[in-house]
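re: ur question from the group chat, yeah i did fold both. here u go
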Amino acid sequence: MQDYEPRLGLKHMYLAGLVLAIIYILVQPYLTPENEAVLWFFGIFYSFILFLRGIDYRRIIFSFSLSFFVIISFIYIFFILVLNITGYPRALAFFLLPLISIATMGYFRDKIASMKQARKQKRIKVSFSTRIRSAVYKIDPIMWVFIIVGFTILIVFLLTPVLLMLYHAFEVPPGQSVLYNFIRIFTNRKYVKLEIFPWEHFYKKQIIGGRPVYVVTGINYGILLNSLINAVVVTSTATFLGILVAFVLARYNFPGRNVFRILAMIPLFITPFVNAYVIKILFSDQGPISLLTQALFGWGIRIDKLAGVALAQIMAFYPIVYLNAYSSFINLDPSMEEQAENLGAKGLRLFLSVTLPLALPGIVAGSVLVFIFSLEDLGAPIVFQEDRLMSYQIYSSFTSETGIVSPEIAALGFVMLFLAAMGFLAIRSYVGMRSYAMISRGGRWTLRERRLGLKGLLFVYLFLLPLILFTAMPQIGVILLAFNIMPPRGFAINLDQATPEYFISLFKNPDVFMYIRNTLSYAAAAVALATTIAIMIAYSVSRTKIRVITPTMDTLATIPLAIPGLVIALGYFYFYATFFRGTPLDPTSGPTTFQAWVVLIIAYSIRKLPFVVRSVYAGFQQVHEALEEAALNLGATRSKVIFGVILPFILTYIISGAIIGFIYISTEVSTSITIGGLRPDQAPMTFAMMMAYKGTTVYGVQIAASMGVLLILFQLLAVSIVVLVFKQRYAFIGV
């Protein structure tokens, strides 16, 4: 890797991109698809020539900004080509072509060089057959059972449903191309709309109630682009806010900091549908925000449709990035920043060149989850009645009169999975290209905290505090709504009308309590199943080191985090409709025959498996293998060692993982309202909350808000047990 001597600067790369873009603009009117393919090939070939001549590609790979820009450029060019966008956006793609080409060539060159170097360092070559015999000798029957059963469950109930969804995505009308459904998604104006009509505006000024109101709705670019743009906007904004709040709370000491930290965590308490409903009230033309702008500027404001969805998701998801970033900032080695300061880096330069890059893995983990959650979120689109998003389209296919999910929806589900996986893999690869090692990692150090001056205190109390309070308002509003302090329509605070009537009715009304009973029983059964699977997988991964098998099992056990819940729901619909046709497990068998509870329990256990596996795996890592070997040498069987020696040691980890899994199962939305909606009397609480909001039940929004309060209490209880009783850190989503 050291024999590559850079002789050309990056200016040659930028110049090549500029030339390509100018050529495209000049010859665009005369270009045919074949001629344009030649231009793309020429751009890649010329980039290869620059690479051979010694362009400094490592400046791209090891630059925080340039390497991230490569990822964004790759995604940009992909959609430019898939959506067949021409004009200046395509010219920009040509300008970016040398950048991603040279970065990709350099990445693979270094990978190949490192693989060759690693191969040279291996002095003893072991044949594949010898490795197999060694693995068979070391692994006893009980471990083979764990590996085979764990693998089988993951393949049958995770991979197979997703592959079935992909199979149905290629079902096309007679005489059509096998890619018909995908071509329709990428070319139909329902999904991709590149032009903006004169009557379409990001916001409109209307007269409502005799006063001017600015109605912010966003611009419709089609279902596919709307979902992608919304996810990018939500992820970018949530990441910025999360980093800002985390850095201030981690690095600066000021009065009330602990209160700030508690308030910043409030949005993490999940109250599906109701929190988005409260946001809609807050930003309605009669809401407090509109009344404030009316008093200050003489006009009101209402945020709705696409803009409302983005706002609700930002407020709900930014704490995911905040907690990841906060954990990263407080675990940074102070000596790294101190050395940078000694070399002259201060302020913003120190933050961008040292602090932020070192904290990047944690921040990126939160950002990727926000991107995925934004794509699959159903609460905000349903509340804001925004059907021009992929998640709403997939959901509506389950509620159609026919009850049949079309191949086009299956293709849309695969596109959602592809977008989520591409974001996940691209960011993970970006993080993997860089080194984050710290000199004294794992030792004790004093955190770098500074006291804020006057300007800093003004920023914290005049900007940060209102921001944190603002993002906590939905959960506070849920409590006010549940106890009738805030009415379900309009905005007012009526303390004299406070009543626990709606909350008490959750347990007195049998029609409402049915959903609570379903939720608790499903969550308990799913947690028991997930815990059993997690023990087998976590033990196999931590105790066996079989190339390919062990890493694959580990990946399959954690990959549900990167698979949108709606994709799981679609896959399970096809899975049970295919292999259990005509049985009570067939989703198309009708609302009186279909046994949704079985499907829901299995779906929950697979979807939330990563949370349980991670906790159990951490427990196995705490028990040294020497303890097992000693027990085996004294005559104990493997089963006696596992169940009589190890599991008692890690019982707290198992219980903690089960509690965390129970909470996330209780608040699950995507599978609950799709699969559960096919058999309403067997649906969980989240389905009832959605129906209450939509007004299709005899009880009102206050009941849904009361269910939200009950879910908050569940989550508070879980935090208390995990943190106070078991002395472990509660694992919020992605943290």
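okk and heres the other one u asked abt
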Amino acid sequence: MKKFLRLITLRFLADPKSIKTKDYISRKRTKMIFTVLFVFLFVWILIFNIGQMTVLGTIRGQNLGELAQEKYVVDRVLEPNRGKIYDRNGNILADNIESYKLVAVLSDKASEGLDESAQKLHVVDKEKTAEELSKIINLDKSNILDILNNDKAYQVEFGSYGKDISIENKKKIESLNLPGLKFETTTKRYYPNGTLLGNFLGFAQSSDDSNLIVGRLGIEKVFDYYLRGKNGRIIYARDAWGKVVSNEPTTEIKPVDGSDVYLTIDKNIQSFIDNSLSDIQSKYEPESAFAVAVSAKTGEILGIGQTPAFNPNTKENISGAWTNAIYNSALEPGSTMKTYSLAIMIENGIYDPNKTYLSGSYRVEDAVIRDYNRVGWGTITYRHGFQESSNTLMLTMLESLGTDKLKYGLEKFGFGKVTNSLFENESRGELAFGNKVSASTTVFGQGSTVTPIQMLQAETAIVNDGEMLKPYFLQKIHDKTSDVYVNKGERTVVSNPISKETAEKTREELYGVVNGEWANGGLKYKLEGYSVAGKTGTAEIVNPDTGTYYSSPYKVMHSFIGYAPSDNPEVILYTAIKLPTKNAVQNYNNAAKELFNPIMTNILDYLNVQKEKSESNNIMYKMNNYVGQNVNSVISNLSKHTENTVLIGNGTTVLQQFPNADSTVNVNDKVFVVTSRENIILPNFKGWSKVDVLRYKELTGIDLEIEGNGYVKEQSVAANKIIKSGDKLKVKLE
């Protein structure tokens, strides 16, 4: 008890001296004891922490291994190269190119150790930096300042605005000589053909928090799983100064590059479509227009375009034209729908080309429906009525058929449901059979809505003896891991909505629309050298302000869906021009002629489809194999058949020819003979067709830019000048 009282009263701190002075507590002894206690506690804490680190590997609740790894071990994702997109002939439609990411260093530690005269490595004047950058990277000065005023970050980025910086803008920023700005090399998606196929290809770009390029729209999004590839990973150690520690093992898992996607699109056919659409946009400024070309025998989509369109590189016009008009938009087709209504009538034994009816008007309940000329043509035959695109003919036949059978027949043609084409957000349209009036107007293409891809799919049944083909755009995917082609597209029969006999009879009537005795609107779609069959359409458009159809005859959609040659179809082409805002009267008179005719002619010429014989153009000959022969003897031999031989190069031996051996050639067609691709004497292109110019470009390898449609009017380099492969040349057509 005495010892306890001595402890709590601190008497143990007393010594003789302190007792003598009546202080009772010795300062010397107090210092000594507390020093011993402090050392004792420190040693035990040290022993405890060392034991904790040794046994548990933690300190203050944090794992030491994790802390060291976080500070000295780098674990970085390795992004793969995104796969490329090609057309059917191997031309690149979507590629990857080097770009740059802008970074601003904020911490003044980056400039430590520099001479006073040296430029700082961190941002010094934030106000000036923000002001200058705002002129280049399309981000407001205030937003840039907000980013630069981050006091906690060593360096900052500028989100999507600082990514995909072009080499031109990089040079502009570097020329500003602003301290603290630097660039990291990255990759961005590039579309070498600009707006060509923009709304079909869509676009891909890296996200704000990653350099991985991801498909955002269109084909890029549809096949993103294949194109994207798989991330890799690299793990290595670095010391306190950021240098790689060479004696520590490095773990690396290489990324797997994305697969390449090949489409059925033909870049040359696509250029025919885009050039014609550009001309239409310039001339009529329509609300929209489109053109789609499909192989009649396989269902492959050869070209697909629309206007307005957006540029996937710059995203210009994307806010007003980001959807794909062929897959995502449903429309009232107008009289082109009569193609399938007629086929249904024939299939059910309703249509008799020689039977007569009274044209002009037809009453459905309280609605009076008239032919386009308001008065009709009196009592005429069914064939006459179809060639005139008579609405009352279709209503007369519908009375015998019944709306239920019409709906069933249209559903068999694929209307009212998606084509399962793989394209994102495909619309199904709507067959409006809710009341008798809408069901009745559906027979001639008003009231119900369809998509252009549904129309093309249905047309394949007409040209393939009742076999309806699935339109497809994927040719193949190249898997780089196994070096094999997977997911190959192929001809696929969806169903047989009509019989072979019905298809043959329908083709006969469609031929009459363009070439028949009473052909009217269809006459303008006749082509020189090729027979065309198809159906015209003039669809009324709903005024969004009133909910009723426009009353003006110029506020409509003109269209034509046809195929050629009519006796052995190679190509189906669907074209439309909706609501022209300029030169409306001229568009009313020409309808879709200025879109359909040049595209179809150029495609058939390009595919080397044999032209029809005529009195002035019926001399044909068979092409020999001239490769490897002396050029002089070849020219002499060809002169017996044609005066249109084009010699390429100044060699003595034929290296290549077009047309190929055993082809049947018209005497008026050009024959190309290649002897070399150096020191080429440029011909006079005046009067050449676009197809011939494209063929010359392909055979010579020269960089040839083509502007316009029709025939060559002028060329940038004069005839008889010597050029070589890679030289640039421009020709204008009209």
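fwiw on the second one: The CA atoms of residues 28 and 668 lie 123 Å apart. The first strand starts at residue 58 and ends at 59. idk if thats what u expected
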